[in-house]
Amino acid sequence: MEAIKQIHANRCITGEALEQLAVNFGERLWKALRAITERKVTKYIFKPSNKQIWVVSGKNRDYLIISDFYCSCDDFYINVVIRKKSKFCYHVLAKRLAEALNLYTCRNL
What we know:
This protein is an alpha+beta fold. The protein has one domain. It has helices at residues 2-10, 15-25, 27-37, 74-82, 90-101, and strands at residues 41-46, 51-57, 62-66, 70-71, 105-108. The chain has a five-stranded mixed sheet. Helix 1 runs parallel beside helix 5 (90-101) and helix 3 crosses helix 5. It is globular. The mean pLDDT is 95.
């Protein structure tokens, strides 16, 4: 998505990028931004392999993000995979935005 690439390049969210994301993701965007500001996005790096796993803490549990293409939440399975209503659930969007903005917690294990 072009807006996320722009955010990654600039390390900030412009009004234009925010507008594009809001049009594409609606409420998912605001939930993703809330997760980022509440420091709920964590990147785990496993040593010595350097394998990376991302976790976004939701209201009731933690959700596993693998790459940018899988989340363990029901919304991902139902609305992204089955119904194809959205490209991402808010957890994947939060991960992608947090990574682009460098606003996440990193844990080395």
